[in-house]
Design brief:
- The complex is a heterodimer.
- Chain A has 14 helices and no strands.
- Chain A is mostly helical.
- Chain A folds into 2 domains: 1-30 and 322-360, no CATH class; 31-319, ABC transporter involved in vitamin B12 uptake, BtuC, CATH 1.10.3470.
- Chain A starts with a helix and ends with a helix.
- Chain B has one domain: Orthogonal Bundle (ABC transporter involved in vitamin B12 uptake, BtuC), CATH 1.10.3470.
- Helices cover 72% and strands 0% of the residues of chain B.
- Chain B is built from 14 helices and no strands.
- Chain B has helices at residues 7-36, 44-62, 65-89, 94-116, 136-144, 148-153, 157-175, 177-187, 189-194, 199-225, 236-246, 251-274, 282-285, 288-301.
- Chain B is globular and about 60 Å long.
- Classes of the chains: A mainly alpha, B mainly alpha.
- Chains A and B meet through α6, α12 and α14 of A and α3, α4, α11 and α14 of B.
Chain lengths: 360, 317
């Protein structure tokens, strides 16, 4: 029965959020039924749209899988945005320096660069927390700000597209090497190599967390640091690893955002969301909704990817701003994190009524 | 270079610094009360955005700044009820539920802005003290006092309220029964509970105070800038949360932190306009406050102890 309430509660939370979404659409003067059908059409209407939804889900899945590692070790990583940017910056720089490297070599290299860039950006708050007791929530938020400014500086300066320099100065790189472009998997759609890479990454995170001694130690630290320490596990090292790995996966999301994009450029509007689409925050929602389990994060990311592509269609068809999707994500976070205690009450109720009914 | 160091330029920059510090100050003072009671609210930025939009929209419609401020207060209070319910009664994890509030505020304020306003129409700027009706005349001679006058009196009323709030919050936390309860439930809720202090009620009210001030902070920002746009705060709310740690949970140090942020921001803008910071390096210069904050946290973290029960939900068993 516990398993049942475990599934009912997040779905109930999503249902409540969508109900509020319907009320918002209604109060904006549109019909919620039309809204829903526009969203479904936008997310799943054609093969191409399903592919676009999967592509939108990819950074959410990677960030989300990283979040599960951090949260399982009881560290809160709010630095997804900065880590995505760090991974994207390092991999873009590498692709600009060695553009003529053959594709089978260049793609693994840029992926590695992204993992390293994001990993470093994640490990910094890890080190600060483990060895200087700096609250990781604050340091990750501050490092987001630093990464955004670094991105703006590099994309308006050293990395700027030579054509943009001195003209409109849009912060973007030139078109990057075709050898670094993530290959398309299904012709005529935008489905690219990044999608299976992200799914594979989520499966690897699952194996790492639940099937290796390393994952066991990480979770032990998250569960009870004092007991873990008493058992000879280094709490400090595991905190750094958890945040570093979490950051590395976000960095990989940054690689996929750049090298899976149609324009094959690193482009922003000067804000973090202008590049990441707020994936660093939405990935947290994705992971929470997937119960902080790497495998459940896969369908969860697809759901939130469809919310994003659906919201784009909602804006096009019914002129409802797609900011609605972000507001709904916020509500879903609130409902999901509030549900633990509600779930406890539900379980108690169920236990009691089953005893009364003389059931199993 | 020398142009920057003339007395009048320095004082003008300081005067701007004071104004820039105000949204940080309101938000961080509110967060101080909440954290002293043991509750971290990471949603400040989202509440600021909602309060900021509400105040902007009210002024756009009615041209009344007082009404704008009241709308900001009401929105802050409302979001406070939501956050307090979620954290105090449902025991939601505070770091994450704050992100929920932030995302909701970010998205919903943008949604409302696009739907109700669309293009950023400017509103009537906030009057300075000497421009106020009735009492304005009293301040005119003060503003005219050389150097000090513009520095201290060439401000709007909200700026004064923010700085008056510093001793007021100190007094509330240190000298009143309520403040004693706040500190008690933030340090040792079990002990406070056994002495008959209601942990839930105390935290609930503390969150309401914090959230209301976040709403005021957002209203101040949009009224001072006389504009609203998507993500107007650009992270001010998050920095305000950091300022509470920075200020070691004491209102006067929190104020010092807010002023430092104001000075750094005002100086950067002034130096950019004077060409001391080259155009290309302005983004690098904008990193400075965040890096300074991280360094300050590194220096302070091992020396200063926060409320012992911070982020820990309370239940009676």
């Amino acid at each position: 029965m516990k398993r049942l309430t475990g599934a009912v509660v997040p779905l109930g939370a999503a249902f409540l959020a969508f109900l509020l979404g319907a009320i918002m659409i209604l109060s904006l003067g549109a019909s919620p039924a039309n809204g829903l059908s526009a969203m479904l059409d936008g997310a799943f209407g054609t093969g191409d749209r399903i592919a676009a939804t999967a592509v939108r889900a990819t950074p959410l899945l990677l960030v989300g899988a990283g979040i599960t590692i951090a949260f399982r070790a009881s560290v809160i990583n709010i630095g997804g945005e900065g880590q995505i940017i760090a991974g994207a910056l390092l991999s873009t720089t590498v692709a600009l320096v060695i553009p003529d490297t053959p594709r089978p070599l260049l793609i693994p290299i840029i992926i590695l660069a992204g993992l390293v860039g994001g990993g470093i950006w994640g490990a910094i708050p890890g080190v600060l927390k483990a060895y200087a007791s700096v609250n990781e929530i604050l340091s990750t938020v501050m490092l987001n700000i630093v990464a955004i400014q670094l991105m703006n500086y590099l994309l308006r300066g050293p990395l700027i597209d030579p054509i943009e320099e001195g003209t409109s100065r849009i912060p973007q790189t030139q078109r990057l090497s075709d050898n670094a472009a993530l290959p398309t998997l299904v012709d005529g759609t935008r489905l690219h190599l990044g999608v299976p890479i992200a799914i594979l990454a989520a499966i690897l995170v699952y194996l790492l967390l639940f099937r290796t001694p390393f994952g066991f130690r990480l979770r032990a630290v998250g569960h009870n640091p004092d007991a873990a320490r008493a058992a000879g596990i280094s709490v400090e090292k595991n905190i750094v690893s958890a945040l570093g790995l979490s950051g590395a996966l976000s960095g990989l999301a940054g690689v996929i955002l750049v090298f899976g994009s149609e324009s094959l450029r690193f482009v922003t509007d000067g804000s973090s969301a202008g590049f990441t689409g707020s994936a660093g925050f939405n990935g947290i929602v994705t992971a929470l909704f997937g119960g902080l389990h790497p495998l459940w994060t896969i369908p969860s990311s697809f759901l939130f990817g469809s919310l994003l592509t659906g919201a784009t269609e909602l804006q096009r068809e019914l002129q409802i701003p797609n900011a609605l999707a972000i507001a709904l994500n916020g509500l879903i976070v609130l409902f999901v994190v509030s549900s633990d205690r509600v779930r406890g009450w539900l379980d108690q109720r169920l236990d009691r009524s089953m005893k009364k009914g003389g059931g199993q | 270079m020398s142009e920057f160091f003339t007395v009048s330029v320095i004082f003008a920059t300081l005067s701007t610094s004071i104004r820039f510090a105000v949204p940080y100050l309101f938000a961080a003072l509110g967060e101080t009360v909440g954290q002293r009671s043991g509750v971290l609210n990471l949603g400040v930025d989202g509440i600021m955005l909602l309060g900021g939009f509400g105040a902007y929209y009210a002024v756009l419609q009615t041209d009344s700044h007082i009404l704008g401020l009241l709308v900001g207060i009401a929105i802050g209070l409302l979001m406070g009820f939501v956050y307090a319910f979620v954290t105090v009664f449902l025991h939601a994890k505070q770091g994450i539920s704050g992100i929920g509030i932030f995302l909701f505020g970010l998205g919903f304020s943008d949604l409302l802005f696009q739907e109700l306003v669309g293009t950023p129409l400017p509103i009537r700027p906030l009057p300075r003290l000497d421009q106020l009706p009735v009492v304005g005349g009293l301040f005119e001679p003060l503003v005219d006092v050389a150097v000090i006058g513009p520095l201290l009196f060439d401000h709007d009323l909200l700026t004064f309220m923010a700085f008056l709030l510093v001793p007021a919050i100190s007094w509330l936390l240190l000298k009143t029964t309520f403040g004693m309860n706040v500190r008690a439930v933030g340090e040792n809720p079990q002990a406070a509970d056994s002495l008959g202090v209601s942990v839930e009620r105390t935290r609930f009210i503390s969150i309401l105070i914090g959230s209301t001030l976040a709403g005021v902070a957002g209203a101040t920002l949009s009224l001072q800038l006389a504009i609203f746009q998507q993500n107007l705060t650009n992270g001010i709310g998050f920095i305000a949360v950091a300022l509470v740690y920075f200020g070691a949970w004491r209102p006067r140090y929190v104020m010092a932190g807010a002023l430092l942020y104001g000075i750094v921001t005002a100086t950067r803008i002034r130096w950019q306009s004077l060409g001391i910071i080259p155009q290309g390096a302005s983004d690098v210069a904008a990193m400075a406050p965040a890096i300074v904050t991280i360094l300050a946290l590194v220096l302070l973290a091992s020396r200063v102890r926060g409320p012992a029960a911070l982020t820990k939900p309370f239940s009676r068993h």
